[in-house]
């Protein structure tokens, strides 16, 4: 009987191939409730964590169960992700956070971005770039600061951010908070599929940019033993990172910024003839900042001020409020046209103004005013795109990042984002420390007079942004959507899905997205470029054709990576019920209890 069945199946397979029907045409299964393309959100009451790696979510929950606050759990998850997802973050990068404190009933913002070397001038930087071009380490036509190597490294702000948050809201000692990440770093864990693919992508990238990077052996020994990227399911260990986390757990913030870790980083920079010094690390400090909000159809979206790009999302919302998107179908041409044009206009305004506020006056009140939004909206035509020549300055590029959110049983809600910027970072791993340094400094402009132009001791324009949502004037949801210039437009798309189209948290993240890439930005954008409008395959074919007819340069992209990584947790104020969602395009999950 089995032989007959096998022969019948083989005959059927042959017939299918003859008809040129591919198994790839198989669509999603059915669901008893909700959209067919989206699974259920997760619900709980005592605590919840949503991260890009399941083990990190579980670590956060274990910290909550041990009596830790949402801040303790978020720090533990972030430390674990630096080990488990080094393709997107680590203690060599920066951190931003928004925290809802139920005790003070206040929303707090933290900017944990680091600064450029105080001893390197603009002239010295441009001379170093010219020297790299003359020696063949950079192409002659390369524009901007090198994407890899020491010239793009700024002081990492993450560890300082951990201790600033922990000082205010921590309930457990840092040795307890970091215990599980240290254990996993020593003993290892099985690598998950999307992150494994990121390892291989970074390996290839580092081969391409090798001439820019002063020293590569440390990165190879830490992440690519034998020159090979680890694969999904392989046990990955990082004992050097375990030692660094142990030093932080024992010595606190000072271990990283003035103690043994800082001293090893400074010695490494001196060895490779780079510019950051021990004094740069010793002088670092993050900053508490005030989130600003914009109302939208019963919700209020809060973002952090520049040097980050969060206010671009607020400008997009202000423009979109000039028309009621609920009049259109979610997959319609009108919806995409208005949202994309709002993005382009918001990024134009951001391009000429966003920078480190210690070095530039950013006209925040004007940019977030109703009058400015009305003037911006009036520039949008229904029958064509705004001509690129009317726009001002490419930012997006890559921005591999991790976003996580944790909510505890008391109602404390943490929205935290952390990144090394482009891929795994600069390619530089200080000897014996187990983490890569960020290449965030690539986002400085070299245009003289621009607010974001490079200067010593300055924070670059920043892409990573956490978000927080109020509903009817009360704290409702901590969320984010990681990935370069996708972030502001992703924040808006998720909010529109929830506020205007009644999607639940998981549906709002799973729905097909767009990414407009190129055009105006605060680094080295071109004012004559429209860029490209990338859309996922779920966008109707008729909408794609109609958008092209309007002048949008549309590409349908099924690779998922461009469209970011989303996590969200909402809290019902009356019942305390937590609802969580995670990104289907990543490896992560939501854990609640």
TrEMBL record:
Record has Signal as a keyword: yes
Protein's UniProt name: Gamma-glutamyltransferase family protein
Entry keyword Signal: yes
Keywords: Signal
Residues of the signal peptide: 1-23
Gene3D superfamilies: 1.10.246.130, 3.60.20.40
């Amino acid at each position: 009987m089995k032989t007959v069945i096998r022969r019948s199946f083989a005959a059927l397979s042959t017939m299918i191939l003859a008809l040129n029907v591919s198994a790839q045409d198989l669509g999603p299964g059915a669901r008893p409730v909700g959209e067919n393309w989206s699974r259920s959100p997760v619900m709980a009451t005592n605590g919840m964590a949503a991260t890009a790696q399941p083990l990190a979510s579980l670590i956060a929950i274990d910290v909550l169960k041990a009596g830790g606050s949402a801040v303790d759990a978020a720090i533990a998850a972030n430390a674990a992700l630096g080990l488990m997802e080094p393709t997107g973050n680590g203690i060599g990068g920066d951190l931003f956070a928004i925290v809802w404190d139920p005790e003070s009933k206040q929303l707090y913002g933290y900017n944990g971005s680091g600064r450029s070397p105080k001893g390197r001038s603009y002239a010295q930087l441009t001379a170093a770039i010219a020297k790299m071009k003359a020696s063949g380490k950079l192409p002659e036509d390369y524009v901007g600061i090198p994407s890899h190597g020491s010239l793009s490294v700024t002081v990492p702000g993450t560890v300082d951010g951990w201790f600033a948050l922990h000082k205010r809201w921590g309930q457990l000692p840092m040795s307890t908070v970091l215990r599980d990440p240290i254990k996993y770093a020593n003993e290892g864990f099985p690598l998950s599929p999307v992150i494994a693919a990121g390892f291989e992508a970074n390996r290839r990238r580092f081969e391409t940019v090798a001439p820019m990077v002063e020293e590569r052996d440390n990165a190879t020994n830490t992440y690519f033993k034998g020159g090979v990227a680890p694969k999904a399911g392989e046990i990955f260990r990082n004992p050097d990172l375990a030692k660094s986390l142990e030093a932080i757990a024992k010595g606190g913030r000072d271990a990283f910024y003035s103690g043994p870790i800082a001293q090893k980083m400074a010695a490494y920079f001196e060895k490779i003839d780079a510019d950051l010094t021990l004094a740069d690390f010793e002088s670092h400090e993050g900053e508490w900042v005030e989130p600003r909000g914009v109302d939208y159809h019963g919700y209020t979206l809060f973002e952090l001020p520049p040097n980050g790009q969060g206010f671009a999302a607020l400008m997009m919302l202000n423009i979109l409020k000039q028309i009621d998107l609920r009049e259109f179908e979610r997959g319609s041409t009108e919806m995409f046209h208005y949202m994309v044009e709002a993005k382009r206009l918001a990024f134009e305004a951001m391009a000429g103004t966003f920078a480190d506020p210690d070095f530039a006056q950013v006209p925040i009140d004007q940019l977030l005013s109703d009058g400015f939004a009305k003037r911006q909206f009036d520039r949008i035509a229904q029958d064509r795109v705004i001509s690129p020549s009317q726009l001002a300055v490419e930012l997006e590029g890559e921005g591999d990042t991790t976003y996580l959110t944790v909510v505890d049983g008391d109602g404390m809600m943490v929205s935290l984002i952390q990144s090394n910027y482009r891929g795994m970072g600069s390619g530089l791993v200080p000897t014996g420390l187990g983490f890569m340094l960020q290449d965030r400094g690539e986002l400085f402009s070299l245009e003289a007079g621009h607010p974001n132009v490079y200067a010593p001791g300055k924070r670059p324009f920043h892409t990573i942004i956490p978000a927080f949502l109020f509903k009817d004037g009360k704290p409702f949801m901590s969320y984010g959507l990681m990935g370069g210039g996708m972030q502001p437009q992703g924040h808006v798309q998720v909010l529109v899905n929830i506020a205007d189209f009644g999607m639940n948290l998981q549906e709002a993240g799973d729905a097909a997205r767009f990414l407009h890439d190129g055009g105006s930005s605060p680094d080295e954008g071109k004012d004559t470029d429209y860029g490209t409008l990338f859309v996922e395959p779920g966008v109707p074919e008729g909408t794609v054709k109609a958008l092209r007819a309007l002048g949008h340069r549309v590409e349908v992209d099924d690779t998922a990576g461009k469209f970011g990584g989303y996590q969200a947790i909402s809290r019902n104020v009356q019942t305390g019920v937590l609802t969580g969602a995670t990104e289907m395009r990543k490896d992560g999950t939501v854990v609640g209890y």
